[in-house]
Give the backbone structure.
Amino acid sequence: MEMIHTLDGLEILDSRGRPTVRATCRLTSGAVGIASVPSGASTGKAEALELRDRDPSRYRGLGCRKAVGHIRGEIAHALVGVEIEDQSALDQALIALDGTPNKARLGANALLAVSLAFARAQAIEAGIPLYQHFAAIHTPGGLAHKLPRPTVNLFSGGKHAGGQVPIQDVLVVPVAAQTVDEALAMTYAVYQAAAELCLDKYRMRALTADEGGLAPPFPDAEAMLGDGVAAIERAGYTPGRDVALALDVASSHFYADGRYHLGGEPLDSAGMIHHLLGWLERYPIVSLEDGLAEEDWANWPKLREAVAGRALVLGDDFLCTNPGRIRRAIDVGAANALLLKVNQIGTLSEAADACRLAQAAGWHVTVSARSGETEDDWLADLAVGWGSGHLKVGSITQSERLAKYNRLLEIEAESGLKMKG
């Protein structure tokens, strides 16, 4: 049994300069856990609610003082001095205290900050690395066995870069790398080649989007993908053999009135699937994220069947790390991969349920950061502890991204774990 001695919150700023929440949890043993939560830009309708102050005179309404006040007040009053059996018991207490289906009353940002800070305090008290503690939360008695392979943001559009093209991100996957160290070195070479390409082709220096991806004025999505292949070749690698592409389509953001407004003539769902298959034919894409809109349920199984193992059919806004939506997707054969974002659901235990559910169905899991990140590195430990296949953090620029990659390098060096194939 654990007992919380003190619980505190603080409004801090994320990588976009917007407020987010940090929690500090001190156990009666003296162990202290501190954790910061991220904030998304491309958000699904089924996500847990991130509580904002809505005071237009401060941070344009985006302040998080209410969420912090809930940590210091109602949450602390309910949890301090109470014996807590484990992470699941803490999270169930938080969910019951909030009492809403989407954590709208106290805020998913407040609940998740407390959930994470408690987990980190437990790991410190036990004297074990955070990734091993996360492994035990995922599977009681379990241990971390493999490291995830980085998928790294190269080019950005959509909500991450002002919408110069509708699709959101083109990422590189260093498929030939045998270690995290080698994967990041290969990615660096491709990124620098892409920056040179942007200067030569668009006369644009390396200006970056929310997650550090390059964001030149692509004329269309086709150019974005073509330039990704060109950057791989310019770096001296063979596309598909050494370095592949992953694509975050984020289709919900250009879907309206039953049509996909990707450029040119609007496409119906069948047309969108045909368009995506054309991209798979022409480019070395190994992961297709949110290829259809989040509520286009009737056509997701058709997309998965059409792709037929040529690439992962990955759900982000579509699934929202929500066990109910994941079960439905499994039942109808709508996807074969989960993009796991803990703050989409609001507590560690619920996210672990989502992860286990997907993995039990034979799905691939990619653990992901958000567009608004902090320098906290717990996500790298989570990806290792929960046995994810990939870690999607953003680009290899900006300290909030590098904190996670550097932590992954640290885990590789200290643990001797190998990267997943």
Summary: The chain has 13 helices and 16 strands. The chain has a mean pLDDT of 95. The chain has two domains: 2-127, 146-419. Residues 300 and 334 are 5 Å apart (CA to CA).
